[in-house]
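Repro:
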Amino acid sequence: GSCGLIMKQRTAVKGIEYGLYGAFMLYASTVVVTPMALLPMSAEFGFTFSGGGGIELSRSLLLVVILLFSGYAAARWGKVSMITLGMLIISLCLLLYSLSTGYWMVVFAMAGIGLGGGLVEALVNPMVEDIYPNDSGGKLNLVNAFFSLGVLVTVLAAGELLTRGFSWRLIFVVLGITGIAMTILFFISGRSV
C-alpha cells in the first residue's frame, strides 16, 4: 500500500541525489581536464597557449549563455530531463574531444561541453532544493562538495596517467564513458520520481 509507495519514492529520491553527485563530479572534471592536457594537445595540434585560451573561451561562452536560458528549459521540460541532457552532452562531447583531429574540432567539442555544463551547473542546486525542501542547506553543501571531489579525482588520476605516458585522449575517453554510465543511472532514477 502506501508504505511501499513511500519506500519506492525515497529510493528514487536517493537515486537522484546520488546522480546529482555524479553530475557535479562530471562537470568538475571538465573544468580541469583541458588545462592538464594542454601541453600534449598543443604539441600534437601545433597551437599556442593563446589557442588554449580560445578553447576555454568556447566552453565559457556557451556555459554563460545556457545559464541564462536553463531556467526556462527546466520549467518547460523539467529539471531531471535537462540535467540528464546536460550530462549526456558533456559525455558525448568528451568522447568527440578524444577523437579530435585538429584545433577547431577541439573548440567545437569544448563548446558542447560548455552547453552541457551550463545545464548541470544551473539546475543541480535547484533540484536538490526540490527533493529536500526541509533539509536543502545540508544537502546543498554535500552536493557541492562533490564538485571539489570531482576536481581532486580528475587532477590526481589524469596527472598520474599523463605522467606515466598515457595519451591525453585516453583521459577524455574514460571521462566520456564514465559520464555516459552516470547519465544512464541518473535517467533511470529520474524516471521513477
